[in-house]
Write a structure and sequence with these properties.
single chain, alpha+beta, two-stranded antiparallel ribbon, 4 helices, globular
Length: 207
């Protein structure tokens, strides 16, 4: 489908041998699960955010001339995680001193035409301006850049409805069933070409 996989930031700086990497993961989903309380979980996440300057400190083992920011992971699948993001994490990040340059993951991605970075509207099929984006190409042509054709159908299993896209043999032709059209792939609810689905509220904190 032409999507770009994006991973959130992790670091081994200050971690004892054999320990687990520090993850720029809010763990907000655990609040909904009831395995952590919101206040200590949020405090832990903010402490991780505060350690982000290691990526702009040239003496840090995490420093890289090509990677001086972090990507943080948050979720919008539960009301608790949305409330934490809107009520605490985003205001905390926006008010942080020294100031952070907050961007969505989309805005950190290079355009496929080589003319700079994508803009926020490129995250959505309906407003995309990056015509070389593989997901956009796949949607418009019904195939990816390698010539593989796809067919998308809607599958209902009990009360669950999902969109399924599969590669079809070159000798086959798509017969319109209301869900796909000739020469075009209907991504249904997946009309999203930012390349990173899990992260909605975060973005890169560029230092």
């Amino acid at each position: 489908m032409g999507m770009r996989p994006v991973l959130w930031t992790s670091s081994m700086e200050g971690v004892a041998p054999g320990g687990s990497a520090i993850q720029w993961d809010s763990q907000d989903w655990r609040v909904h699960a009831g395995t952590v309380q919101s206040v200590p979980n949020q405090a832990s996440f903010q402490a991780i955010l505060d350690s982000s300057p290691q990526f702009s400190n040239q003496t840090s083992s995490s420093y890289s001339t090509s990677h001086q920011g972090v990507v943080v992971l948050q979720h919008d699948i539960y009301v608790e995680s949305v409330n934490l993001a809107i009520g605490y994490t985003i205001p905390y990040a926006e008010a942080h001193q020294p100031r952070w340059n907050l961007k969505t993951v989309t805005e950190c991605q290079p355009r496929f035409d080589g003319t700079g970075k994508q803009i926020l509207r490129d995250a959505y099929l309906e407003t995309n301006t990056d015509k070389g984006n593989p997901a956009y190409v796949a949607f418009m042509s019904g195939s990816d850049n390698n010539g593989t054709s796809y067919q998308t159908t809607v599958v209902t299993d009990g009360s669950v409805t999902r969109t399924v896209t599969r590669a079809i043999p070159s000798s086959s032709s798509s017969s319109g069933n209301g869900n796909s059209a000739s020469g075009r792939v209907d991504l249904g609810p997946l009309k999203f070409i930012a390349g990173f689905v899990a992260m909605v509220f975060g973005g890169a904190i560029l230092l």
